[in-house]
Amino acid sequence: MSTNAAVAGRDDRRILNALRDAPRASSPGAISATITLGWRALLKIKHVPFQLFDVTVFPLMMTLMFTFLFGGALAGSPREYIQFLLPGILVQAIVFITVYTGVGLNSDIQKGLFDRFRSLPIWQPAPIAGALLGDVLRYGIAALVVITLGLILGFRPAAGVIGVVLGVALIMVFAFSLSWMWIIVGMKVQTPESVMTTSFLLLFPLTFASNIFVDPATMPTWLQKFVAVNPVTHLATASRGLMHGNADMSSVLWVLAASAVITTIFAPIAIRMYRRER
Amino acid sequence: MNWAIETEALVKTFGATRALNGIDLRVPSGSVYGLLGPNGAGKTTTIRVLTTLIRPDGGFARVLGHDVAREGAAVRAKVGLTGQAATVDEDLTGRENLIMVGRLTGLSWKRARSRADELIEAFDLVDAAGRQVRTYSGGMRRRLDIAASLVVTTELLFLDEPTTGLDPRARNQVWEMIRGIAAGGTTVLLTSQYLDEADRLADRLAVIDRGRLIAEGTSRELKASVGGNVLHVRIQGPEHRVIAEDVLTRVLGHVHNGGDPLSLSAPAATEEGVAEALRALSGAGVALAQFSLGQPTLDEVFFALTGHGTEEEKVEA
Question: What ipTM was assigned to the predicted interfaces of this complex?
Answer without folding.
Answer: 0.83
